[in-house]
Design goal:
The protein is an alpha/beta fold. 42% of the residues lie in helices and 15% in strands.
């Protein structure tokens, strides 16, 4: 079975107005865009809502995006005791999100509880949401791992073990760097999805991202979903940047 693959646009905006403005630019079919009809079926991109936007707008932003036909990845990275996470996940499942995440550092029992809660909440939806885990944040380096968190294993071993824990707990995949996608697939199976940020076109600035790949390279590396923010949201023509992502990543 091959995994679904898609491009997730990170809407790192502070309110609904700014988000809708971007979505209007993304979904407008412009006559000057070459071959626009080829992806008109995808004129409603998969959207990632992060903490800033969700805490500013609350659940209404999810309803707004779903009503406009977008799939929603709610990137809240839950991490608490299993019972608390389970109850929170029931609520998020009821909202009809398509993808949501937890920190793998919360452990096996927490991830299992998260999955149970999410499935309970989403019981009435035919398309079940995907639950993925953050292994280690890209802001954590080896020094921090060893000196602050007192974890003495190397980063790649930690990431692999956390991904295996997530798989065992019944999660669908992990957020990771595209550089780690092949290794995660080798350890956890091809059907375990890799969701990879740190994407830049060849002619883009890296901004604050350190290990970057283009959409075409991420495809080669085996990413299932790429998370793309500024290369699309800050582009002069977001619609065309999104089209370029589709062409490179989905072919
Ligand atoms: O603008 P840019 O393409 O860098 O946005 C990447 C998105 O992916 C942001 O929302 C960022 O918070 C998120 N992300 C990341 N690295 C991770 C996890 C999430 O860049 N390890």
């Amino acid at each position: 079975m091959t995994n679904d693959r898609d491009i997730i646009i990170a809407c790192d905006f502070k309110n609904a107005d700014e988000t809708i403005k971007l979505l209007d630019k993304l979904t407008r079919i412009r006559s000057e865009v070459v071959r626009c009809d080829e992806f008109s079926g995808a004129a409603r991109p998969f959207i990632k809502i992060g903490m800033e936007l969700y805490y500013a707008e609350g659940p209404s932003i999810i309803k707004t995006l779903k009503a406009r036909g977008h799939k929603v990845f709610l990137d809240l990275k839950l991490h608490d005791i299993p019972n608390t996470v389970k109850k929170a996940m029931i609520v998020l499942g009821e909202y009809g999100v398509d993808m949501v995440n937890v920190h793998a550092a919360g452990g096996f029992e927490m991830m299992k509880a998260a999955k149970e809660g999410l499935m309970l909440g989403a019981a009435r939806y035919a398309d079940k949401p995907k639950l993925i885990a953050v292994t280690q944040l890209t802001s954590t380096d080896d020094d921090m791992l060893h000196d602050q968190l007192l974890i003495d294993k190397p980063m790649d071993e930690v990431v692999k073990q956390y991904a295996l824990n997530a798989r065992k707990a019944g999660l669908d995949g992990v957020v990771c760097s595209a550089f780690e996608a092949a290794e995660i697939h080798a350890a956890c199976g091809d059907d375990f999805i890799t969701v990879t940020p740190g994407i830049r076109f060849k002619d883009n600035a890296a901004d604050d991202q350190k290990r970057i790949m283009s959409p075409a390279e991420a495809r080669e590396a085996g990413s299932d979903y790429i998370v793309v923010g500024r290369p699309v949201t800050a582009a002069e023509r977001p619609y065309e940047a999104y089209a370029r992502c589709r062409e490179e990543f989905l072919g």
